[in-house]
Design a protein that fits this description.
about 260 residues; alpha+beta; OB fold (Dihydrolipoamide Acetyltransferase, E2P); 5-stranded mixed β-barrel; two-stranded antiparallel ribbon; about 15% helix
């Protein structure tokens, strides 16, 4: 028995939509008649219904793959040349270092079995000498009359005593060291060109000076005494201290000295 065929239904053409980059091969509605005896047609439903969700179209076309651009070289020509030059320089440096090391080893004389080693003993430190004022040259036989000076004049003489050798001046000061180390013909004192007053038992004279006498009597002079002296500048003198150091000070030759007091 033959089943009757349903009438052919024609639907109007509709534009083909794009899905995921591909064109669907079927329109929004069915384009061909539905035949029950031929079975289910995938992607379509009778009576003009839309395709079911998840249905697979009967045909699927893939677009051709785009052409791949030519692959560029990883390193350019200049980079390759630089690498070659760097490798050559490195080889030259390594060869130079190896040659220098080889020449240094060949220039070193071989050690002999009978060689002796010289041992040097540490030097014995010299004994620290006490503070001794060296002898100052005696004043001229007939020195010029001593002249009074100011504190500034004395500062100039103390700064450069060798530039004022032979000048006769009057100074004031206080005896700081006059003992067996200095001897009986000289002493060390703090001196200035003007007299300083005594304050609370102290006199503030600052310039360390070495004085010596060939004719003046120093027997009555002791440490702490304040004095007025007529002297001749003899230059500078260096002497060793009790700590082993060296001290340089102006040196004066005494022609006349007078004790004017005492202080701490």
């Amino acid at each position: 028995m033959t089943m009757p065929q349903p009438p052919y239904q024609q639907y109007p053409q509709q534009p083909q939509p794009w899905v995921d980059g591909y064109q669907q091969p079927y329109p929004q509605g069915p384009q061909q008649p539905y035949y029950p005896q031929s079975g289910y047609v995938p992607g379509y439903q009778p009576s003009g219904q839309f395709p079911l969700a998840g249905s697979v179209p009967t045909q699927r076309g893939l677009p051709p793959a785009p052409p791949q651009p030519p692959r560029k070289p990883r390193f350019g020509l200049l980079a390759r040349i630089g690498m070659i030059i760097g490798a050559a320089v490195l080889i030259v440096i390594v060869a130079s270092v190896a040659s220098a090391a080889k020449s240094s080893r060949s220039s070193t004389p071989p050690s002999t079995a009978g060689s002796t080693t010289t041992t040097y003993a540490a030097p014995t430190p010299a004994a620290v000498a006490p503070t001794v004022a060296p002898s100052v040259p005696a004043a001229p036989a007939k020195p010029a009359p001593a002249k009074a000076i100011t504190a500034r004049d004395w500062a100039k003489i103390a700064k450069s005593p060798d530039a004022h050798v032979g000048e006769s001046i009057v100074v004031y000061g206080q005896v700081k060291q006059f003992d067996a180390a200095t001897g009986t013909d000289g002493f060390r004192a703090n001196v200035d060109g003007v007299k300083h007053p005594v304050s609370y038992g102290y006199a503030d004279y600052e310039t360390n000076t070495v004085l010596a006498s060939a004719s003046a009597d120093l027997s009555d002079l002791v440490e702490g005494d304040l004095f007025r002296a007529e002297v001749v500048v003899s230059g500078s003198v260096s002497y060793e201290t009790t700590l082993g150091g060296t001290m340089t000070a102006p040196q004066l030759s005494i022609t006349k000295i007078t004790t004017i007091g005492t202080a701490k």
